[in-house]
Every structure is written in C-alpha cells, then in structure tokens.
Amino acid sequence: MLELKNICKTFHAGTPDEKRALIDVTLTVEDGDFISIIGANGAGKSTLFNAICGSFMLDAGMIRLDGQNVTMIPEHQRARQIGRLFQDPMRGSAPDMSIEENLALAAGKGGWLSRVSAADRKAFRERLSLLGMGLEDRMRQPVGLLSGGQRQALTLLMATYQVPKVLLLDEHTAALDPGTAEKVLELTRSIVEDNHITCLMITHNMQSALDLGNRTLMMDRGKIIYDVTGEERGRLTIGDLTDKFRQLSGRALDNDRMLLGIDNKE
Amino acid sequence: MTLDKFLALGQTAMELGLVNALTVLSLFLSYSMLNVCDLSTDGCFTLGAAVGALVAIAGYPWLSLPAAMLAGMISGFVTATLQTRMGVQSLLAGIVVNTGLYSVNMALTGNKANLNMNKIPTIFTMVKNLLKDTPLAGQSALLVMLVTVALVVLFMCWFLKTKLGLAIRATGSNADMVRSSSINPTFTTTVGLCVSNAFTGLSGCLMAQQAKSFDINMGSGMVTVALASLLIGGVFFAKHRPIPLRAAGVVLGAILFRLVYGLALRLNMPAFMLKLVSSVIVVIAISGPYLRRQVPLMIRRWQAAREGRNADA
Description:
heterodimer, A: 266 residues, six-stranded mixed β-sheet, 10 strands, 23% strand, disordered C terminus, B: mainly alpha, ABC transporter involved in vitamin B12 uptake, BtuC, two-stranded antiparallel sheet, 2% strand, globular
C-alpha cells in the first residue's frame, strides 16, 4: 500500500518563477490497484511520480510505502521497491551494454564480484521470450541497437524483474508509433496482471485511461481534482471526462494530444 | 636503417609502449567506461613513480609495486570524492588534484626534483638476475612488462564483467538507469576512479624503475599521450566489440604510438615534439568524426552559394 499524506512541493520558491507543483496532495493506493492519471501539461503528474521516487525532498507531508515511512530515504535506496518507466525509451537502459548485462543489473542478484551465470542467462532468456520480440536470441547485442519499442519493452522487463511494490509509468508509450505503443501497452497489462503489481500510469490517451486499470485520477494545477472508481468509472466516456475537467477546473481542456485522443475514438 | 637497428627500435617501443599501456588501460576504465576525463593522471603517474622509487630505494623493490598502486588509489579516491560528494566539476576535480599532487610529490621526495636509482636493485634488475643464465636474459625488461600488462588486461576483462564492473560501465553509459537499479552512482564512480588510478600509479612506478631515475616532471602531458594511444587503440576495435578485444586493442595502440614516435625520432624529429604530436592525434581522433559530419553541410552551403551567384548573373 502506498500512502501520500498532505504532500507539498514548490519549485523556485520566492522568485518570479515560483511554481506550486504539488499542493497538499493526499492519496491512498491499495495493493493491486492500477490507477490511470490524466491532466493537462504542468498539472503535476510527473512531479507526483518524482515525489514518490524521491527525486527531490518534499516541502511538507509524508510518503509511506508498504507501512515504511520513505519520505527521507534517498532515491537510489527507494529504487529497489519502485519501478519506473519514462516517455523516453532511451532512459531506462544502458546503450553500450548488452541486453544480458542490462538485465543482470536489473536482476540485482549476487554480490559485487559475482558474474552472470548460466542459470541467470537461462532465466533472462525465459523472461525475454515472454516479450515476443525475439530479444532472447540477441542477448549479447548492445541495447543501443534496439528500436524504441524494443527498448521500452526491455525497460518494462527490467523495472519489473524484481517485482516492485509499485510501478510508475510516465507516458511510457507516448514516444512510440501507434502499433508499437499498443504492443507495449498490452505487455504492460499482462506483466502487471501476472505479477499483481500495484501500478500508477500517466497517460494522455483518455481512452486507455478509462480502458486500463480500476481507478482514474484527474490532476490540475498541483491537485487531484477527480478520483473515480467502480461503477461510476465504468459508465464514463471520454466526453464525460472532458466535461468533468471543464466543470472542476473552470476551463476547457487545452491539450492537443488529449483532444486527439478523442478524435481517435470517434 | 639496418634490420638490427629496426629490431632495437621495436624492442624499445615495446618496452615503453607496455609501460604506457598501463596508463592507457587506466584511462580505458575511466574515460571509455566510466565516461570521466580524469585529468589527475599526470600527477598520479608521478606520484606512483615517486612512491615506487622511495620504496625501492629503501630496499623493497617488490613492495614498490603495491605501494605505488595504493598511492594511486588514494589519489583516485580524492578526485572521486571531490566530484561526487563535494560538488566540484569533474574536469576541475582532476586539475585541482593534479596541481596539488606536485607539492605532495616534492614533499615525498624531500624537496628533490630527481631521484637516482642507478645503484639500487629495482624489480627489473632483480628479474634480470633471476634469468641470468637463461636465453631470456636479454629480454628481461620486456618480459616483466609483458607479464604485468597481461595480468592487468586479464584483471580488467574479469572486473568489467562482475556486477561491480557492470555497474561502473552503466554509470558511464546511463547514470539514470544505475540509480533505478538501486545502485549509488557516487559509489561506482569512486570505485572506478580508485581502480583506474591504481594502474596509473603502477605505470609511473615501472617507468621510473625502468629508467632508473625519478623526475618530478616525468608525468607531465601523460594524460594526452595516453589518450592518444587509447584513441589509436579504439581504431582497431570499436565501441561495440567485446571488452577483451578492446582492452587488447588499447595495448596495441600504446605500442604503436611508441613505435611511430620512435621512428619519427630516427627521422630526426626532435624529442620535444612528443607532446605536440600526441595533442594533434587526440584532436584528430576526437574532432575527426565531428568534422566529417560537417562536410556534407559545407558542400551544400557552397553549392547553394554558387547557385545563388549563377541565378543573380
């Protein structure tokens, strides 16, 4: 269970650039939840993820992961419990190292002086074959040679190799072409379901925000303005979501990609 | 040039090239793997030479090797601490340590710019004595260097495949990814620079003992010379090739550099040109690929300008 209690973050405080990125955000994520998060650019979605990962120190509030207060724990120490994917497929793997070597670091097994064993290799092979991309036959090749979609799929595998307590997906399919995005999304769905991973996913695609998962959050100007689950969510259409946004934020949704999401549906 | 002279030239190039190869292997770790340009190399090389010379003069030639490596490791630790824990930029950290090491080295030698090891046993004279009545006697220096470099190459190949080595390589390739594998990049950078500088120190130690003298300026420009050898070595085996091949290529680069330099000396190039030559090689190797990408653009511009002139006329 992930609990955020009254967390606040202001960037450039006291300057003309002051930005209140998170304002008193409180959120409880139950084990096994798959939450989609939508909102206009600058709403604080990625900042929320950065806060959970510990990329910066909170101004106020507390974060509890699985009962443990992690508010003051540095980023790299939290990382073992948190998996994260970014929009940029290049960000999650080391291009100059082979697929096998990247996986060995993600698996995090053994002491500092241990090497990749035959058993490790066999396990990597099995996991890679689940991606259905033929990567299991290219384990010695540098990751830099893979396509964006293949790299993002590999990153997904790496982030979930040791099952994380929470998986954060920050528009992880937005930089991929539609076909590949669909495939990576499908992989995400199956990996998350098979391992019962608690998952938060930022998306600009309203349709997948409603299709995937069991709960949807809408963020605006540093706050969660709408939180919907269950039957109410089941009845929602994209039109309802944009109406909701207009009603709750007092302005129209002005994000091109979101509007395109609507076009795709019609 | 007679064959004899050529062989002698080759042997000298091999010996000196192999001594340099240790520094080049050290940059292979810091520059190629960790992606840190460690400018403390010059001072660290001299530090290893000074410590090695002092320990050998004190009567422990074998102990001089680990002592020089330990000294290099400490120097690497300081450089790494400055850039990972104290907010000093990476390049500046190296320069600051390099400058500071001059005083350290002078203090170690008791304010002497030179130390003479002509009459004391070094590891080279000891091995020579061991091999006295064998056919290898004439090649003892070469043998010492070959064995040392081979051991260091083997160590590198092993080390870079361990989890620690992988983490160090990932730090140079994508530090974000290292952090998300719950490894602290501060730690990997520190270990990487300690190991790399240990070999720089060892290189300096062997250089001084082979030349039977220590000079406070013997390390000056070493980083550029080593970088030139490293980049020449990179020509043989590119980035995506297996690490053992790349490490071997780097050693080959160091020997080739010395061979070309030796030949140039024979052709009456003055010895003081060494540093300019290595600077030029580094510039060519680094900016060459960049300039090559610019050429099509320049041709297009030139064509456009010419067409523009024709259109006006």
